[in-house]
Amino acid sequence: MQMLTTPFFGIFLSLIVYLIGQWLFKKTHGLFFFQPLFVAMVLGITLLVVLAKFLEQDVANLYNTAYRPGGDIIFWFLNPATIAFAVPLYKRNDIVKKYWAEILSGLLFGTVISLFAIVGVSKMIGLNRIGIASMLPQASTTAIALPISKAIGGNAAITAMACILNAVIIYALGGWLVRKFRLNNDPIGEGLGLGTAGHTVGSAFALKLGSVQGSMAAIAVVIIGAVVDLVVPIFAHLVL
Amino acid sequence: MSQQNKNATKKKVQPAPFLVQMGIYASILFVANVISSLAPASFPVPAPVIGMVLLYSLLSLHILKVEWVDSFGAILINLIGFLFVPSGISLAANLDIMKAEGIQIVTVIIISTIILLLVTAYTTRFFIWLKKKSPVHAHSKKAVQPKSVPVRALTHAKGEN
């Protein structure tokens, strides 16, 4: 057990499962089900569950004592990685200057419409009030979504799950969705959508599609953060 | 020979040394974190988001040159899929929620992700369409009502309901 509680274990596990994911992705010629991040997540959780059974421990406990020390080190690098999106954004300053009003209104109205749709879907599927409140702040990054979720009476763990799965889903299904709904007809909307739905990971995905998409996704991450901060508490107060 | 070639291409845009780039990122993160801690609890603004705004402002004001932050940033952005693995695995701590009502929650999350993507994309497309339409042909084409884009936006938003 002791050798598992050093950061080496978490870093080792993260890299191995991700590399297996990359290998599977290549072997299957890019089948979305074997998207490396998705494979790494499922494989990593499965390994922790099996290991917990083997050590006769609680999974959450094993995650906290064994995986987290290493996982947190990798996780920290998302901080500078998020900042780095300022560079693709700056490189397409021409688009920002020309379309700033459309970008702002698209994000603001898009969020409000999405919130109504999300409440509708949640009610149809039968989530309770806590569940619905937990779904509302998911358009922003985790650091904003969690406190807002708590403030409007949601469950922070469910919100965290939503924010994380958003990114995984966009990374895995983004290509298919973009093709299916012909989002590439309008790279500005495409980028803003990917940044809103997939956060930083969605922005990395958008950047692969093009410089306009990447820069728009980056600006979406910033502005949606502010929009969620301001709009979601009011929305929750009025609608829930 | 190859050395000379390298020098020739590097003359145009000289990227800052790696450690200098890291230093810039670390300074911005540090300042951003200080600003973030000053934000009120009801309006959380995370340090990385403030950092992105800071770096963007410094670039736009030409205080920083893009080649001082470009290559290190590109490496980090290319790694984001991997950097996100610990977040994915962190769901292992919440397996009890999954057992209780996991299928419902995951279904709502998947649909919500698609809603956010499509609604944002089509709403923006609608506003860009408005902008393109309004200045030149404002009066002559007013009779031809929104045809392709806005109708589509609506049907998709409804389709997810």
Automatic annotation (TrEMBL), chain A:
GO terms for molecular function: hydrolase activity. Keywords: Hydrolase, Membrane, Transmembrane, Transmembrane helix. It is found in: Membrane. It comes from the Bacteria. The chain crosses the membrane at residues 6-25, 32-53, 73-90, 99-119, 156-178, 217-239. Coiled coil: none annotated. GO terms for cellular component: membrane. The keyword Cell membrane does not apply. It is a multi-pass membrane protein. Pfam families: LrgB (PF04172). This is Effector of murein hydrolase. It comes from Liquorilactobacillus capillatus DSM 19910.
UniProtKB/TrEMBL annotation, chain B:
The chain crosses the membrane at residues 18-39, 45-64, 71-93, 105-128. InterPro entries: LrgA/CidA. It is a multi-pass membrane protein. Its main location: membrane. GO terms for molecular function: hydrolase activity. Keywords: Cell membrane, Hydrolase, Membrane, Transmembrane, Transmembrane helix. It is found in: Cell membrane. One of its GO terms (cellular component) is plasma membrane. PANTHER family: ANTIHOLIN-LIKE PROTEIN LRGA, HOLIN-LIKE PROTEIN CIDA-RELATED. This is Effector of murein hydrolase LrgA. It comes from Liquorilactobacillus capillatus DSM 19910.
